[in-house]
Amino acid sequence: MARVMIVDDHPIVRDGLKTYLSLQSDLEVVGEAGDAETALRVASESSPELVLLDLRLASGSALALLPRLRALEPPPRVVILSSFLDATALRESVRLGANGYLLKHVGPGTLVDRMRAALRGELVLDPSAVELLAHSSESPLARLTAREREVLDRLADGMSNKQLARALGVSEKTVKTHVSSVLAKLGVRDRTQAALMAAAQRDRPPRPH
User: Fold this and answer.
1) For the domain with range 139-202, which CATH number is right: 3.20.20.370, 1.10.287.990, 1.20.58.220, 1.10.10.10?
2) What's the rounded mean pLDDT across residues 23-37?
3) How far is Cα 47 from Cα 67, in angstroms, rounded to an integer?
């Protein structure tokens, strides 16, 4: 059973989430908090595997709390659950290691499905967030060169540096340079986060012409 923690400064939201999650046989709410400091203390004590984190807390930004949660041992998955979509917050949350960005109007069944996906290590994004990342002129993906985008696509396929070098006909040293550039431009910490971002974009529905 996966251990879940809820961080939201509205008690009615926490109560609603707890009630629904209590009906799931594979999820257990092991803690809750309404502010950042309490959240960090409760997370340290209860060791959740997944934290649902409201973007705006009365005591401060969730983006300041996110890296502190991710620094715990073992580090929990963190999914931002917000009432609004903010491009800057979306990119920053992914850069800081969030496993998802969902909006509170998501259906309860969909929310649980996305939580399970996040627990498997997948990047879970609201469709509007995927669209924003993929098509905004400010999207980190738009900063990549054609070669870097090819490298990113192959990372999303799970290729190692050696496999990338063979596929692209270049040295592993060159591959490492490309990967480092991709990570820097996307503002993510590691190749896994970069691959998840690329995979999430692949899953978006095509735009109508």
Assistant:
1) 1.10.10.10
2) 95
3) 15
